[in-house]
Amino acid sequence: MRTVYLGTSDFAAAVLDRLAASDHRPALVVTRPDRPKGRGRKLSSPPVAERARELGIEVDQPADVNSDEARARISGANPEAACICAFGALIRDPLLSEHPWLNVHPSLLPRWRGAAPVERAIEAGDAGTGVSIMRPIAELDAGPFCLQEAMAITPEDDYGSLSRRLAWLGGELLVRALDERPEFHEQGEDGVTYADKIGPEDRILDPGMGPEALERRVRALTPHIGAFTEMGKDRLVVVRARVSDLPAPAPGTLAAVDGALVLGCAGGALELLEVRPAGAKTMDAGAFLRGQGRALSGNP
């Protein structure tokens, strides 16, 4: 089947790999414009643009995918199906009505409609999630689905490990949907939840939260965004943590306790196992305490 593919993120690039290896290799890949990235603010292409070029697929990066020019480019590829995954911008009419669409969404809809379904599933402590292949409509992630498959979330999963498995599953289900053209089913409204985009406030290890919730927040935002606590005027990004039964310092206090790096929080303590200080590389807690931890409460 002749396809076009719309996507932007690393997750979408992994799905593109599977689609390109199938009988439904895209004739055109549409992604977002290059944007400044990193400390030098150098223009960088989205992961999907880079991967499409490596695969030898034509790439379009319109400022507005709903513009007449972008729509004409998509229509010029004569797609029998338009596939979309983690594109990062809404598809609106008339583009939405001009082609049959298949959207790869990493949740078991109607749970976790929205921009950050993988992060929100981990943060909420869900035992599992999955992938839905659905038809987008004007209402966000509310369209009918044709395939769904569940996947367990393990206690060790962070965003990186879970998203890799979900991207693999998403690619498999997308190809299957194109091969088999299964029947669509309405989602219904029972169990609807929304996975809001991760904002600055979602990154903070709020001492008013319990240690279990903070540990899940760390995993949900690792390695792509990063949860942090404050250390003076600087941020200390927490890469790996665990709930601790060590004596808890006051909520919000970062302390050395029995040789461990501990953050006090409501109802207990969170032990920080790997951290990334401002301007430095990721290190284990022992290295941090030896190098920068003397000012912490409880450190000799």
Short overview:
The chain has helices at 10-20, 47-54, 68-76, 95-98, 117-123, 159-180, 211-220, 285-292, and strands at residues 3-7, 26-30, 35-37, 42-44, 59-60, 81-85, 101-105, 113-114, 128-134, 145-152, 194-195, 227-231, 234-244, 254-257, 260-265, 268-277, 283-284.
- Calculate the mean pLDDT score and round it: 95
Radius of gyration: 22 Å
Structural class: alpha/beta
What general outline do the C-alpha atoms trace?
elongated
> What percent strand?
25-35%
Q: Segments where pLDDT lies below 50 for 5+ residues?
A: none
The ordered H/E elements are EHEEEHEHEHEEHEEHEHEEEEEEH
Numbering strands along the chain, what is their spatial order in the largest sheet? 5-2-1-6-7-9-10
Main sheet overview? 7 strands, mixed
Helix content: 25-40%
Distance between the termini: 67 Å
Number of strands: 17
* Total helical segments: 8
How do the strands and helices of this protein lay out in sequence?
Blueprint: E1 3-7, H1 10-20, E2 26-30, E3 35-37, E4 42-44, H2 47-54, E5 59-60, H3 68-76, E6 81-85, H4 95-98, E7 101-105, E8 113-114, H5 117-123, E9 128-134, E10 145-152, H6 159-180, E11 194-195, H7 211-220, E12 227-231, E13 234-244, E14 254-257, E15 260-265, E16 268-277, E17 283-284, H8 285-292
Parallel strand pairs: 1-2, 1-6, 2-5, 6-7, 8-11
Antiparallel strand pairs: 3-4, 7-9, 9-10, 12-13, 13-16, 14-15, 15-16, 16-17
Helix pairs in contact: 1-2, 1-6, 5-7
